[in-house]
Amino acid sequence: MSERKLFGTDGIRGQANSAPMTPGMALRLGQAAGLWFVRGDHRHQVIIGKDTRLSGYMIEPALVAGFTSAGMDVLLVGPLPTPAIAMLTRSMRADVGVMISASHNPFQDNGIKLFGPDGYKMPDETESEIETLMDSDVSARLAAPSHLGRARRLEDAAGRYIENAKASFPRGLTLDGVRVVVDCAHGAAYKVAPTVLRELGAEVIAVGVSPNGTNINHECGSTHPRHLSGEVLAQGADLGMALDGDADRVILCDERGQLIDGDQVLALIAESWATDGRLQGGGIVATVMSNLGLERFVQARGIELHRARVGDRYVVEMMRERGINIGGEQSGHMVLSDFATTGDGLVAALQVLATIVAERRPASDVCRRFTPLPQRLKNVRFTGASPLQHPHVVQAVRDAERLLGSSGRLLLRPSGTEPLIRVMAESEDAALVEQIVDSLCARISELA
């Protein structure tokens, strides 16, 4: 397998209208992915969705041109969450699905994620093959004039996702009398998320629902959850939920304005599903970033915790390998494979709301499943080659690991989407955690 140059941990991503995120690249990607998935004599289909970024108007038609030139028919669904594109790809038996989004990144960035006909993100090997096609001359393999694809809009796409999301909420329960603040980050879920909550009976205060092409994720959504906290307190809400730009992740907030991260949500859903006999595979999948407190909590209840690489695609891969139906990340990606093939922030929040309603207890009680160990994560930006292999950094890491001993954890990893080194430490000793993270970041900064 050749090394991927364009695809990262979550598709292709970059600043819009600069390499690699250009119309030319999108055209080549559409042709290459189209040719890869055109197999047999039937009419082939691709579903293309997007978030609300201004650059979506540039990337979308370039992809349409690429796929139609490869002989694929295109169904355009407009702004919809990433999990909606995965769901539609599978339920409509499309050959491939495409989401145009840079998730939680600012509007200047954009990205492209690909889904196979089963609704799952494509494995690294397939992405490598598509990259190889993009770098080659495929002109002789493109469709003849009489076999070009057509493009049309799928008018009921949002309604299909809304009904699918509502179906994940337990029968016999409603959200009548529950007051919910939902921050849609001016992103892909700005219409569908409030609609789902209202149709389930909730009193909805919707914020971040006025996209203008440049305000996606700007001081709102899951990357700026303090905005949500203030709104929950001001509105006297029972729960707050902040989605990101493509709504595949969620950060929650209890009625006291306290934030609830993905680890707590994993703990809640795992315990609830285990009690109801719905947990599959005897465990859950988290990542190397998840808190030791989560691991101890689930293990005390006979639930095994498996750690995957950071990135919901790797969480899903491990879930499928082990037959597990709950997985997620501390950052708020929650994958519940009973309902979705990828992270779905809205569906995860509905599971939490169901527990709040069923137990008739406030979110501050329901969502505090364990006390996390002191943990700190800090990012260091760098230019040029990654400094992680530098002898001074290697030695600093060894020294830090000796200080932490067997009761703590240290993790340094490069971001998959930005030129950042993420430094994380956790231990029972909060002061030691602070010292180690600051020291390592200082050492990396000297070299970066």
Largest sheet report: 7 strands, mixed
CATH class of the largest domain: Alpha Beta
Rg of Cα set: 22 Å
The secondary structure category is alpha/beta
Largest sheet, spatial ordering of strands: 1-2-6-5-3-4-7
The protein's oligomeric status is single chain
Average pLDDT for all residues: 95
Cα-to-Cα separation, first versus last residue:
31 Å
Keywords:
Alpha-D-Glucose-1,6-Bisphosphate, Chain A, domain 3; 4 domains; globular; 21% strand; single chain; 5-stranded mixed sheet; 19 strands; alpha/beta; 448 residues; 7-stranded mixed sheet
Architecture overview:
The protein has helices at 23-37, 56-69, 82-91, 124-134, 157-167, 192-199, 226-235, 262-276, 292-299, 312-322, 345-359, 363-366, 391-404, 430-447; strands at residues 7-8, 11-15, 44-50, 72-79, 96-100, 109-115, 151-153, 179-183, 203-207, 239-243, 250-254, 259-260, 283-287, 304-308, 326-328, 334-336, 375-381, 409-414, 420-426. It has 448 residues and is an alpha/beta fold. The protein folds into four domains: 7-155, Alpha-D-Glucose-1,6-Bisphosphate, subunit A, domain 3 (Alpha-D-Glucose-1,6-Bisphosphate, Chain A, domain 3), CATH 3.40.120.10; 160-254, Alpha-D-Glucose-1,6-Bisphosphate, subunit A, domain 3 (Alpha-D-Glucose-1,6-Bisphosphate, Chain A, domain 3, 3-Layer(aba) Sandwich); 262-366, 3-Layer(aba) Sandwich (Alpha-D-Glucose-1,6-Bisphosphate, Chain A, domain 3); 375-447, TATA-Binding Protein, CATH 3.30.310. Helix 1 (23-37) runs parallel beside helix 2 (56-69). The radius of gyration is 22 Å and the shape is globular. It starts with 6 loop residues before the first strand and ends with a helix. The mean pLDDT is 95.
